Amino acid sequence: MHSNKTIHNIIRKKTKYLPAILIKIETKTITIVLTKKVNVLFFTKNPCLIVKNILLSKKLNLKKRSITIHTLPYLIKFAHQNFNMYRSHNCGELRASHINTEVTLAGWVQKSRDKGFIVWVDLRDRYGITQLVFDEERTSKTMMEQAQNLGREFVIQVKGNVIERASKNPNIPTGDIEILVSELNILNKALLPPFTIEDKTDGGEDIRMKYRYLDIRRNPVKNSLIFRAKVAQEVRNYLSNDGFTEIETPYLIKSTPEGARDFVVPSRMNEGEFYALPQSPQTFKQLLMVGGMDKYFQIVKCFRDEDLRADRQPEFTQIDCEMAFVEQEDILNVFEGLTRHLLKEVNGVEIEKFPRMLYDDAMRLYGNDKPDIRFGMEFGELNEVAQHKDFGVFNNAELVVGIAVPGGNTYTRKEIDALIDWVKRPQVGALGMVYSRCNDDGTFKSSVDKFYDQGDLAKWAEVTDAKAGDLICVLSGDKNKARAQLSALRMELATRLGLRDPKVFAPLWVIDFPLLELDEETGHYHAMHHPFTSPKPGQIELLDTNPGDVKANAYDLVLNGNEIGGGSIRIHDKGTQAIMFKHLGFTEEEAKAQFGFLMDAFEYGAPPHGGLAFGLDRLVAILGGQETIRDFIAFPKNNSGRDVMIDAPAPIDDAQLTELSLKLNLKS
Ligand code: ASP
Hints:
By secondary structure, the chain is α+β, with helices and mostly antiparallel strands. The chain has 21 helices and 25 strands.
């Protein structure tokens, strides 16, 4: 056997074009690691193989020893950390302990300050900012000139020595040091960006969306994307540990009704036929249950072609789940666990209680099926105490309903008038608002004193739970409308009063949703959740007589006034599903054509099952304490469904239309 020294020498010789390979020789093994000078490009050429071939060549008798070479992923990880040709460190990691180290950094020029004899450059990458210094005394004249001409967002690489800063910057982690640059490479020049790459930028939403790749360089967007990835990772951890299997379902499918229009895709190979993009993987996940997969989840894109009310996206992401052999309680427990896990891991918040509220109560007390329960201001129904006086507006109303605004008696007349204007805006739609001030001395002063005496107003205060110093705001009219209007007012006032602290988390299960919902315009019922939701046991007969009263095994998880998820126990037998389709207005033929595959599957042993889906974009935004989901989507669309960066949607050319057997019939 060769001596260690001989092996060393032979390997050195054989690997001289890979000078950085270090060899540790032990009795039974030879371990190979790559040092930091190794070119990262080298890794793409399967280093293990190259190195092994070299070492196993005839001249080197290694029979008695095994060669351990770190596997490729490990090397690549290593490479990212240390062995990168472009940089030895990132721009966020150097500290005082690195002083006197030779380093190589790469990144973007955030800004430079040129004092003539000295130039400071802030070099930025994803990890932070490091200050570079060039000065007349220590920097060559050419490099000095190069440094002076660096523009914002130029991509550069520098080599240099870490030195202590004369004036330290306590605001950034690298603020104790700077790099005295000995070598400067301009890797790429950059045009002047159309907005500043700063946390608070001068760029408006439109321009930032057009140049989203520049926007992503800004901390708020970058951090939001990293935050989203963390949430998704924790979702995967939690559900995988709980025995869920992540399974992909197809995107080119047939309509799955979730209450929106489908996006459709023409099929070239099947002339005149179209796929629909999934509004959700609903039918597929049910089929996975019939397939015996038991616990499924998927972080999945869904597509819904609906008018984009503020902060909706035509394509969005769901955490979609389904479980077999479960009842509602099982599902609520699993997803309560998931939400608790996320709040703990991502926000460091421990939540004990996930209260439950009946849908009917949510509507009665908050006028809303997703109440924000971080604050009170519950509705008080005033019909009994406010009707049958001489005030016609209330007498003719289906519902008279009010809330007590804490401390609202301090509002001036002008402020109250502005509030009345606010509820009269078309977006809210109230015809007016009655109010009653609750004075500190226990008396009341209302806008309808003509019709109501102090005793009447005291009853209003009792019903709305108003205290001295509060303001009672009362709306009236059609029950559903008045509730919706007062709900909007409640949320607005709570926002103004600072009662909606994004750092406080108040989850709530809303349960026992109605199965069907009446479409006022058409007079038809449609599924409130979707057509596969099962009615509560024993209520199916009611479908014929009082369809609007049938309750479903359906539930929503609400967080801080936002619906973050919803689901149901499903129908799992063909008979019930057929009755349901009938009530939704499908003929037998239509039901068969659209959902025959599901009905057929139900005849081959479908287990009882149910599930739920969380909206990931919204969930992430709430956990991140933000209002808008766009910040958490790398490439979002605008309110008209456009991606203004790539300019989509866009016309397609005639050849493509012909290939798809399509002719356009444009309205304008
Ligand atoms: N597919 C439903 C939705 O997208 C969720 C579910 O019922 O599981 O809302």
